[in-house]
Design a protein that fits this description.
The complex is a heterodimer of chains A (about 300) and B (about 120). With about 300 residues, chain A is an all-alpha fold. Chain A is built from 11 helices and no strands. Chain B is built from 3 helices and no strands. Chain B is flat and about 70 Å long. The chains are: A mainly alpha (about 300), B mainly alpha (about 120). Chains A and B meet through helix 3, helix 4, helix 5, helix 9 and helix 11 of A and helix 1, helix 2 and helix 3 of B.
C-alpha cells in the first residue's frame, strides 16, 4: 500500500476539499434563506475582513489566538487520511479510523478555549455547553466507527471502503449509521445541536467575542469540519468512491455534498436540543444502542 | 509501514493552517486598526460596562457524565485493536469483549438506577 500521495493527487484532493467547503458555505445560506447565492461566501468574507476587529480587554491571549486556528486545524486534519478514490488519500495511516476521532476531539478544545479566553460569561457558558455536548455525542460516535472497523478487519480507511463492496455499511449497520449521523451533527454544532454558538442566544456563545479575521477563521473552520464529517460518512457508511459509471473521485464528491446538504437541511425541521437532555438521552438510549450495534455486527460477521 | 516521513505531511498541514491564519491577520491589519473608544472592548454581556470576571469557579453540572465518559473512553481504547482482530479470533473475541462490556454496562444501569442520569 502506498504511504502518501503524489503531488498531482495532493493538489486534486486540496482543490476538491476547498471547492467542497465553498459549496457548503452556499448550502448553509440555502438552508436558512432557501435560495442558492453563489457569490455570497465571497461577500461575507470581504465583509468580515472589513469589519472593525475588537478584542476583549482582559483576554487570555494564548487561548484567544489558539481557538480559531485550532478549529480550522481540527477540521482539516481528519481529511488527510480519508480516501477520495482508491489511490487518493493524502496519507494512508494504519490507525486511520482512530486518527479521525483524535483529530475531531480537538474541536472541543478549540471551543472551550474560545469560550474561556474572552473572560465573558456568555462565551464561557457556550464553551461549557459544548464540553457537555462532547460527553454526549462522542461515545455513540466512536462505537459506531468501531463496528465499521470490525467489518473491514482494519483501521485503514481505504480497506474500510473496500469492505463495503456489494453492501454499504448504511445497510449493513443502519443503527450505527443513524448514531454516527446524529453525533456528527452534534460535533459540528449544527442545528438542532447549535446551542454552544447559539445564533440569537447568548450573543453567539463561544464565538461571542471574536470579530473580523478571527471570526472568519472560525466560520471557515466549522465549514471544514462539516466537510470532513461528510467525507467521513461517505467513506465509512456510503461505500466511498464505489459506484457505477463515473470516476471514483466524482462519486465521493457527489455523496459528500449530498450528506452535507442533508446536514444543513435537518436542522430546519427540529427544535434546538439542550445539552443536558442530550446527555441524558445519549447515555440512556444512544450508548446502549451503540453497544447493541457492535454486538449485532459481531454476530453478523460470525455467521 | 514504519516510515515517519509520512507524519511530516500532517505537520505540514498544521504549518499551512497557521500560515494561512497569519496571512489573513496580515491582510486584516493592513486594512486598518480599530479606534480606541471607551466601552468598546468589553466582552459581550448585554451592554454592561462593568463586567465581573468570568474566570470563577463554575459548577459543571455534568461531572457525573464526565466520570462515566472516562470509563467508557478507556474501554474504547481496548476496543479498536480488538475490532481489528475480531474476525480472526471469532467467537472467543466476542465472548471476551462481551463479558467486559457487560460489566461496564451493568455499571451504567446501576448509575441510571441510582438517578445519576438525570439532569443535575
Amino acid at each position: 500500500m502506498e504511504n502518501s500521495a503524489t503531488l498531482p493527487t495532493t493538489l486534486l484532493v486540496v482543490l476538491l476539499f476547498a471547492g467542497g467547503v465553498y459549496a457548503l458555505a452556499v448550502l448553509e445560506y440555502w438552508s436558512v434563506a432557501g435560495r442558492l447565492a453563489w457569490a455570497r461566501p465571497v461577500r461575507l468574507a470581504l465583509k468580515l475582513l472589513a469589519r472593525e476587529e475588537i478584542r476583549p480587554r482582559q483576554r487570555d491571549a494564548v487561548f484567544y489566538e489558539t481557538a480559531p486556528v485550532l478549529l480550522l486545524a481540527a477540521g482539516t486534519l481528519a481529511a488527510a487520511v480519508l480516501p477520495w478514490s482508491a489511490s487518493a488519500p493524502l496519507l494512508s495511516l494504519a490507525t486511520g479510523a482512530l486518527f479521525v476521532n483524535a483529530a475531531f476531539a480537538y474541536v472541543m478544545v478549540a471551543l472551550v478555549l474560545g469560550g474561556w479566553s474572552s473572560n465573558g460569561a456568555y462565551a464561557m457558558i457556550g464553551g461549557w455547553r459544548f464540553l457537555g455536548q462532547l460527553l454526549a455525542y462522542s461515545m455513540p460516535m466512536v462505537m459506531a466507527l468501531t463496528a465499521t472497523v470490525m467489518r473491514a478487519e482494519s483501521m485503514v480507511p481505504v480497506r474500510i471502503v473496500l469492505s463495503q463492496r456489494g453492501l454499504w455499511n448504511i445497510v449493513y449497520q443502519p443503527v450505527g449509521f443513524g448514531l454516527f449521523y446524529l453525533a456528527a451533527l452534534a460535533l459540528a454544532f449544527l442545528p438542532p445541536f447549535d446551542l454552544p454558538v447559539a445564533a440569537g442566544e447568548l450573543a453567539g456563545g463561544a464565538w461571542a467575542d471574536f470579530t473580523g479575521a478571527r471570526r472568519l477563521l472560525l466560520r471557515l473552520g466549522r465549514l471544514s469540519l462539516v466537510m470532513s464529517l461528510a467525507v467521513t460518512i461517505t467513506v465509512f457508511y456510503l461505500g466511498g468512491w464505489q459506484g457505477p459509471g463515473l470516476p471514483g473521485v466524482v462519486w465521493t464528491l457527489l455523496k459528500t455534498l449530498l450528506v452535507a446538504a442533508s446536514f444543513f437541511g435537518v436542522g430546519r425541521y427540529v427544535s434546538r436540543v439542550r445539552y443536558d437532555l442530550m446527555l441524558e438521552w445519549s447515555w440512556k438510549y444512544a450508548t446502549p444502542a451503540a453497544l447493541f450495534n457492535i454486538l449485532w455486527v459481531g454476530i453478523l460477521l460470525l455467521l | 509501514m514504519a516510515n515517519d516521513s509520512r507524519y511530516l505531511l500532517l505537520l505540514g498541514m498544521l504549518a499551512c493552517t497557521g500560515a494561512f491564519a497569519g496571512l489573513l491577520y496580515l491582510v486584516k491589519s493592513s486594512l486598518g486598526q480599530p479606534v480606541a473608544e471607551p466601552g468598546k472592548d468589553v466582552p459581550a454581556e448585554s451592554g454592561r460596562l462593568a463586567v465581573p470576571p468570568a474566570w470563577v469557579r463554575y459548577h459543571v453540572h455534568y461531572y457525573g457524565f464526565a466520570l462515566l465518559f472516562l470509563c467508557f473512553d478507556m474501554e474504547m481504547a481496548f476496543m479498536y485493536p480488538w475490532a481489528v482482530v475480531y474476525k480472526e479470533l471469532g467467537i472467543t473475541a466476542l465472548l471476551d469483549m462481551g463479558v467486559f462490556l457487560l460489566i461496564l454496562f451493568l455499571g451504567l444501569v446501576y448509575t441510571w438506577n441510582q438517578g445519576g442520569l438525570k439532569r443535575q
